[in-house]
Design a protein that fits this description.
Layout: H1 3-10, H2 47-77
């Protein structure tokens, strides 16, 4: 294994994707360039590259998850 490939394999924990199998076209499903960006930086240095929209999307998904959990809890109590 080349030294560069070894380094990349050690630095590639983001999203659980494997740099050897990642085609770079988003085809592996869950992998995203946003996996490498901490959410607290979305509104700062990454705001112009879509960080604000990404933060809004993640907030909306959390809200939906919380709502689904609350509805499941109500269904369990019936």
């Amino acid at each position: 294994m080349s030294p560069l490939r070894a380094l990349l394999s050690r630095l590639w924990p983001f999203g659980g994707s494997d740099p050897d199998t990642d085609r770079g076209d988003g085809a592996d499903g869950d992998a995203s360039v946003w996996d490498a960006v901490p959410s607290w930086q979305y509104g700062g240095r990454h705001a112009e590259s879509g960080g604000i929209a990404r933060a809004e999307q993640e907030r909306a998904l959390r809200d939906l998850d919380e709502r689904a959990d609350a509805e499941e809890e109500v269904d369990r109590r019936r």
